[in-house]
Amino acid sequence: MAIKNSKPALVVEDLRMRYGDIDVLKGVSFSATQGEVLVLLGPNGAGKTTTIEILEGFRGRSDGTVRVLGTDPNEGDERWRARLGIVLQSWRDHSKWKVHELLHHLGQYYQPYSSPQRPRPLEAKQLIQLVGLEAQANHEVYTLSGGQRRRLDVAIGLVGNPELLFLDEPTVGFDPQARREFHDVIHRLSDLDNTTVLLTTHDLGEAEKLGDRIIVLAGGTIVANGTADQLASEYSSQSEVIWTHNKQRHVHVTGDSTAYLRELLNKHPAGITELEVRRASLEDTYIKIVQQHETSRTAKTGEQ
Amino acid sequence: MNAVLRAARLGFLRSLIEFKQFLRNPQEIIWTVSMSLIFLIVLWFQRNSDINGVSLALLTLPGLLGMTIAQGGFSGTAGTLSYDREDGTLLRAKAIPQGMVGYLVSRVLYIIYSTLISLVILFIPSLFLINGLTDVGWLGLVTFAWLFILGFLATAPWGAIIGSVVKSSGSGWGLTFLPLAGMVAISGIFYPISALAGWLQALAQVFPVYWLGLGARSIFLPDSAALNEIGGSWRTDQTVLILSLWAIVGFLIAPRVLRHMARRESGSSMEDRKQKVLNRGY
Question: How far is B168 from chain A (nearest CA, A)?
């Protein structure tokens, strides 16, 4: 991981959103430093999209303080807008444009905001390479597959060489290889260009792989905030013991792995060919966090 | 300001790129041409009949031209805007610095191009079809250009208002097509307005379609034909006045409605619309 600049790219304090008499966000606070990759996890209706839309300046808020690159999104001007990259969940626009033509055209809007430290826009050709659409560069957008279209959306989000990139479920519809390549792109952005990334996902493996920090949102509040390791150790004392004995594979979940291992090796003095002790996966942790929240909450939850 | 001018220039570029895309798309061309072709067939059948020495086709054509202006400004704007909201084009413009400037410029120009195309498709064959049309001359065409601009200004903001408030592209089209068809029916486009009941005549004179038809007739018909109109005159002053009123009120309201709509536009509102489309099953 690269050395991160400690200047905050995002500051959210006591963010509240209310539709009619439904509280969608009930006092959400978090921050991100420059170059950090922040993953927003949470069940549907937890308020992820609402949060991200408020930060993008696409939605007003009911209460709370928000600073995105030092500016309140409600007062963000075009200069501020030029520093953001936005990839939404569903985009079907510009279907008759060719991939290269579209990227090049949209990039030109960013040129007045170019600086020596941060040249804008990025070259369309280079971006097409980055997201692996070389073969489709001169194809019309409507001929792209779902995953290719998504990669184009990511490329458009990057064309202004953003300091902060918002990605709402970016890898839906990606095949495993495209997903792997996309993850490399995100790593490169955060490490080399010091780009801050805020992304939502339902893919826990992705969250674990990409996120410097993971925030779990449930019922309009943050129920967990930390690295994948921190979350796992905070929320789960369980470990998984996996071993192979006489060519047969076994899995056991235990709260006291040392005692279990001692017992296991006593029972089988020979014949164990593989042995692995693993802390609970992020998936286990996540489900536990959300379950804990569901059982403890008393207030009504809102839709996103 | 530099960035704004640049975005306006990019909007102009976009309108050209998208117009080229239109020219490369046979389906859309056929759709655009077919309406004009139907009207041309009507004119073809009317070419040999005449009323008081004026060809019936010559009496009908100006009304059709006036109607086409209203259709482009009103339906064209509403349809484009509601469609762009549905597929995310508008939101994309919002996500880009000065993207809205580029978007608006490109859309206004594009709607003007496509309205002009419809007018030309109707007008050029008519030159060969209808006797007396060539008498109009260049001055007439310049006057028609003025009528085009005024008519566009009088109708486009209202199309933008409808396009901003409707919930889907389908209703964007429907909610403009039906009122327009109603206005056309009472505005003396296909037959003289004097044949209608008095209250219908009064109603028609509230809306721009009647005045666009009247204005076009005043350009293309001999002065003697004015006797068939209400009040026996072309009423040019009133035409300019009423169309200007629609334009002024439209431009007072439309920017507010547009701004309000654009502010509310977000990923989730687009997602909601997409879900509705999917639930309808088409």
Answer: 15
